[in-house]
Amino acid sequence: MSDGRLVLPVVLSATFVQLLNVTVAQVAAPAIQAGPGAGPGAVQLVLAGYTLTYACLLIPAARLGDRYGYRRLFVAGIVVFTAGSMAGACASDAASLIAARLVQGSGSGLVAPRSSPSSRPRPPRRADRAPSARTVPPWPSRHWPGP
After folding, report:
1. Helices (DSSP H) in 28-119: which residue ranges?
2. Cβ–Cβ under 8 Å, residues 21 and 50
3. Cα distance between residue 94 and residue 35, in whole Å
């Protein structure tokens, strides 16, 4: 991964898993209500808890990424997200499932700031750029024929 060829596939895979997690929980809502004996309010909290913690951590996570590095934040987010996923798989009641979904959303919020900048093309290096418009005038003003 030192040459950077794997960065984009890994980051886009993480983004795919984040979006898939929201969709899977919405499809599984009837089974969640029937399985652990959760009421409609608890099912809504399972669904909204992930999105809520994800959204609340976007700006603080971007700041943390600026301070400590996006790679560290990405790895920490993946670890937190995986721990939340494992806790959600082992959840036996609605309260533990809600807590696991909150942890998953937190991990997803930590991963998200790395996902957006990585998918954009990088600007060319200074040596590769064309000269700017300010260094080359659009016409030679001294030699312009005038009245």
Report:
1. 29-34, 40-68, 70-89, 94-118
2. yes
3. 9
**Residue corresponding to tokens 């600026």:** 66
Q: What is the pLDDT of residues 67-87, one digit of tens each?
A: 998 889 999 999 999 999 999
> Which of 8, 10, 91 is closest to 49 using CA atoms?
91
Nearest residue to 4 (alpha-carbon basis) of 132, 122, 110:
122
Please tell me the pTM assigned to this model.
0.73
Whats the size of the chain, residue-wise? 147
Contacts of 101 (CB under 8 A, 6+ apart): 25, 46, 49, 50, 84, 88
Where do the structural domains in the chain lie, given as residue ranges? 35-119
CA angle, 69 then 66 then 8, to 5°: 55
